[in-house]
Amino acid sequence: MTGILAGKSAIITGGGGGFGKAIARLLARDGAAVTLMGRSQARLEQAQDWVQAEAPDAQVALAAGDAAKAADVKAAIAQAIEHGGGLDIAVPTVGGGGGYGSIEAVSLDVFMQDYLVNTGSAFLMLHEALPHMKPGSSFVFISSTAATLPFVHLASYCAAKAGLEQLMRVAANEYGKKGIRFNCVRPGLSHTDGMDALFAMPGYVDSFLPYVPLNRTGVPNDVAEAVRYLAGPESAWVTGQSFAVDGGNELRMAPLPPG
User: Fold this and answer.
1) For every one of its 259 residues, what pLDDT tens digit does the chain have, with 9 covering 90 and above?
2) Is the dihedral of CA 55, 7, 61, 194 positive or negative?
3) How far is it, in rounded angstroms, from Cα 76 to Cα 126?
4) Is 157 among the residues known to form the active site?
């Protein structure tokens, strides 16, 4: 396959989700062999079909597994290496939060589970993928504006995303001498798979728009384009950075919960 990423091999966790498949489309369009990892085989197959419909020459493999389990991550990386002949790009997109509520209302177990999902899954990808990566390789993590904006009732999610960004910076500082790059994309409110219920909630989107200078919410491709830049040779002298893709939300503040 031709393209600026021809000969490159990429793995994307959360590969069945909106961000994951949008990122896969752009990487595959530009020639990378892509392995999608996710817990649902059915969702992975749907994502594979969608990517290949959008980019008919796409090379897409599937690896069912849990990004928060070391054995599953190790197996998915081995599959990506077999599929693409190595490993050059890793994009852990897994995230989310179950700890919605005041700090007093959230248990330590829920707080730590949010850390595992958002930061622990990224750490596992680093831990298992780094031994296979060579100079010129790139990690791109999916953070959130919650890493910098203090959203009410999202303490565990905010803390986990902030931890993810510091993990990225430590890795960038430690492994820069090996020519491996690490960056984050910080999405603002975006309408991805799984967000339909929130977007349908009366007042939810309207509560954000006054704090978004560009006056719209995001779509997966907004974030995918930023990931594609950070994954590819165009950003060869960029590492340790976190780019907000949020319509300007961080220029203002986090909205209060509706109601």
Assistant:
1) 689 999 999 999 999 999 999 999 999 999 999 999 999 999 999 999 999 999 999 999 999 999 999 999 999 999 999 999 999 999 999 999 888 999 999 999 999 999 999 999 999 999 999 999 999 999 999 999 999 999 999 999 999 999 999 999 999 999 999 999 999 999 999 999 888 888 998 888 998 999 999 999 999 999 999 999 999 999 999 999 999 999 999 999 999 876 5
2) negative
3) 13
4) yes
What CA–CA distance (Å, rounded) separates 15 from 45? 10
- CB 80, CB 11: distance < 8 Å: yes
Amino acid at 144: S
The pTM (predicted TM-score) of the whole model is: 0.97
CA dihedral of residues 193, 196, 210, 188 (deg, nearest 10): -20
User: Among 157, 175, 204, 211, which one carries the catalytic annotation?
Assistant: 157
* Of 191, 89, 95, 102, nearest in space to 140 by CA: 89
User: Radius of gyration over alpha carbons of the chain, in Å?
Assistant: 18
Task: Name all domains of the chain by residue range, CATH numbers in brackets.
Answer: 9-246 (3.40.50.720)
C-alpha 62/C-alpha 16 separation (Å) is: 10
Phi, psi of 142, deg, nearest 5: -100, 110
Which two structure tokens, joined as six digits, stand for 80? 């990506």
128 — phi, psi (to 5°)? -85, -30
Task: Quote the distance between the C-alpha of residue 75 and its chain's center.
Answer: 19
